[in-house]
Design a protein that fits this description.
1 helix, 335 residues, 4-stranded antiparallel beta sheet, disordered N terminus
């Protein structure tokens, strides 16, 4: 009897331990688009956008998918998307034409709500609430492009106070995750020749900037590619060098406060997306070479999948993570 109880206890221990390791429930969406724009709504509803003007959406947790082409623009790469619900979403292009479109009927029709000039390149879109949102674009004339909407994405205008950019500084549209927006302000994480962190305070309407000296930088392919925030403060930044995807030196930073930057033991290579799963207290990073997670606030990382994804984001409520990648690949985290 004692031996039986011992074996049962060991089995339960192993089972519970195994259950704490995340895994991806993978889905194949229609087509083979590279899906870098990602916007989860819940465990059932999630949108994505990407190459070939593609948008995709599930309303039943990945059981079935709807897809289409934004306004017939099959040569445009819509790398940024924000969805409000199953009917309403905003997409922004990467490259030319630099356009923003909006749908109110679930993707059946799209209206162009904004267009910039030939130098513009949109990198990310983030909303603070249902009305107030921001689009980050590459620098023009030494200033970062930041557009603002106060009517749910129906119209856009330039932020009055734009941050300075140095020569060779860039934002990456690999997962539309270089921008964070919340009720207190904006955060822009950059790379390229120099990697920096820009913070904008809504209260003071001013910017501060700090060098990210522990992040790999110096080449156009290097730097921060994605940032996520902890509730109550703290940031996790991931990236690396997309031309050297196996390199794990200087590819992740943990920003604990205004005065402290702690270098993480990085993920297993270049990572283009990162998200915080509040329900478990995990940080999950993804890239074309696989996925890693951290259970200790991004101080250390463990690989858990070799499946490649571009983007990973948490649905509101912090209990579900969705991921999107190349060739129409989609994933939802199970644990």
């Amino acid at each position: 009897m004692k031996q039986l109880l011992f074996l049962l206890g060991a089995f339960l221990y192993v089972t519970l331990s195994f259950a704490q390791v995340p895994a991806w429930n993978s889905f194949q969406t229609p087509g083979e688009a590279s899906l870098r724009g990602l916007s989860p709504i819940s465990d059932q509803v999630c949108w994505a956008s990407g190459s070939g003007g593609t948008w995709v959406k599930t309303e039943d947790g990945g059981g079935s998918w709807q897809s289409g082409t934004v306004a017939g623009l099959d040569t445009v790469d819509f790398r940024s998307i924000h969805a409000f619900d199953a009917k309403t979403a905003v997409v922004a292009s990467a490259g030319q034409p630099a356009v923003i479109y909006r749908t109110e009927d679930g993707g059946n029709t799209w209206e162009k709500v904004h267009q910039e000039g030939k130098e513009a390149f949109f990198d990310a879109v983030q909303f603070v609430d249902a009305q107030c949102g921001y689009v980050l674009g590459d620098p023009i004339g030494g200033k970062w492009m930041i557009l603002e909407t106060v009517d749910g994405g129906k119209s856009w205008h330039s932020l009055a106070n734009l941050p300075d950019a140095v020569l060779g500084e860039a934002a990456f549209a690999a997962s539309a995750s270089s921008l964070v927006a919340d009720a207190s302000g904006l955060i822009v994480a950059t790379g390229g020749i120099v990697s920096r962190l820009h913070r904008y305070s809504f209260a003071s309407q001013s910017w501060t900037v700090r060098e990210l000296t522990d992040m790999i930088q110096g080449e156009p392919s290097q730097g921060v590619f994605a940032v996520t925030a902890f509730p109550g403060g703290g940031l996790v930044l991931v990236g690396g060098d997309y031309l050297k995807p196996e390199n794990r030196v200087g590819n992740a930073l943990l920003v604990l406060s205004e005065a402290t930057i702690s270098t993480s033991e990085g993920p297993s290579g270049y990572r283009s997306g990162v998200a915080y799963l509040q329900d478990k207290g995990w940080v999950v990073a993804v890239g074309p070479g696989g996925s890693d997670y951290s259970t200790d606030g991004a101080h250390s990382w463990q690989p858990f999948s070799q499946t490649g994804f571009h983007a990973v984001k948490a649905a509101p409520g912090g209990k579900v993570l969705w991921a999107s990648g190349g060739q129409g690949r989609f994933g939802k985290l199970v644990y």
